[in-house]
Amino acid sequence: MTQNQAKSARRPVRDLIAPKEPLMVFRGQNAAMLLPLILGLMASLAVFFALQTTQKLYELQESIGLANSELTIFVPSTPGLTPTLTDPAVTRAMDALQNTAGLGRIEVLDRQQTQQLVERALGNAVTAQVPLPTIISVQRARRPDVDVAQLRTRLDRAAPGAMVDDNQALRQQLQAARVTELTKGLGLILAVFVVVSITSALVIGQSVDLQTDVIHVLYISGAPDRIILSQFVGFALRSAIIGVGLGCLVGWLLQALYWPRIFREPSVILPLQVPVMILVVSLLIMVAVISARGNVLRKLKRTF
After folding, report:
1. Is residue 1 exposed (0-12), middle (13-18) or buried (19+ Cβ within 10 Å)?
2. Considering only CA atoms, which of 61, 9, 300, 45 is closest in space to residue 194?
3. What is the pLDDT of residue 247?
4. Mean pLDDT for the chain overall
5. Can you give the residue ranges of every domain in the chain?
6. CA dist 251 to 104, 184, 241, Å?
7. Residue 35: phi, psi to the nearest 5?
8. What is the DSSP code (8-state) at residue 13?
9. DSSP string covering 49-79, please?
10. What are phi and psi of 268, to 5 degrees?
11. Strands 70-75 and 134-140
């Protein structure tokens, strides 16, 4: 017996049964080759939907922050006085605002800006002859230091009929929209995960059926279940990594084209999107692998 033959004889039987190179049990199977393509498509949809939800939540949160930081003052115009800055009521209201602690920027809107705001509520019935109130936009410097009720009283004394809108109704509307958007986004992503699970189970199940003879030969040779299982699960893992990785890139590019703000503010938006993409990719790969493993074990126990 030569030296090489002696080394081969001393090799464990499990090394002969389970070579390190993967078994080519999927060669020639078009169904198996479709798995990374289908997973890539599902990943692109999941990432796009997830980033769409992130975008809308980000924009809603910005709007909520803006509503929290600003007050809107409506001062009735004095009859016969069209120029805003010459109206005594506006002058007294400005003095009251400038002497109020906790307020920052104070801006008087011009007629065009005022008309746009009023038209949102009244429609296009506003004409040049309609007397418009003077609208003052006020930014809170330190929100806890502003007593809105006291500010209303002070402005009513300075300019009778003046109103203060602290955007409470708008904040409630935006918060409700945020909850709705989050629920809708999670529902879409959950639907994609279900489709990925079903797709993985069907493709791997068909591959197992097509390779029944190969599995039977492995069983006769003494291959344990974990060796056979590792071949199918390893294939599902490789397919998921390739397909989901490319799908994630495609989904992000679609979202970037839809929302070019990503390129204008990458330092702000990318830290929000990267964890979302990592989470979605990880979950998709995990769902594919778990689905493949469970389906293969079920078929092996039922067949053998």
Report:
1. exposed
2. 45
3. 92
4. 77
5. 25-63+178-303, 77-161
6. 41, 18, 15
7. -60, -50
8. H
9. HHHHHHHHHHHHHHHHHHHHHEEEEEEPPPT
10. -95, -40
11. antiparallel
- 164: phi then psi, degrees, rounded to nearest 5: -120, 120
Which tokens is 39 given? 């997973």
Say what the alpha-carbon torsion angle 16, 17, 21, 26 is, to the nearest 10 degrees: 150
Give the β-pairing of 103-108 and 163-165.
unpaired
Predicted pLDDT of residue 12: 47
Contact indicator for 29, 236 with CB cutoff of 8 Å: no
Q: Are 251 and 40 in contact (CB under 8 A)?
A: no
Residue 134, beta-bridge partner list: 75
Spatial CB neighbours of 49, under 8 Å, sequence gap ≥ 6:
185, 188, 189, 192
Sheet holding 163-165, edge to edge: 103-108, 134-140, 70-75, 163-165
Taking CA 212 as the corner, what is the angle to CA 209 and CA 218, rounded to the nearest 5 degrees?
Answer: 145
**Ramachandran region of residue 167, left (φ > 0), alpha (ψ -120 to 50) or beta?**
left
3-state SS class at 107? strand
Other Cβ atoms less than 10 A from the Cβ of 88: the count is: 11
pTM of the entire structure?
Answer: 0.69
CA–CA distance, 128 with 69 (Å, rounded to integer): 31
Q: Which two tokens stand for residue 179?
A: 């909850």
pLDDT in tens, 238-267: 888 988 999 999 999 999 999 998 898 888
Residues making up the chain, counted from first to last:
304
Q: How far is CA 188 from the centre of its chain?
A: 11
Please name the residue ranges forming H helices in the chain: 3-10, 13-17, 30-69, 88-98, 111-122, 148-158, 168-210, 212-220, 225-258, 261-264, 266-303
**Across residues 191-195, what is the average pLDDT?**
84
Question: Would you state the structure tokens that stand for residue 146, as one six-digit string?
Answer: 């502003």
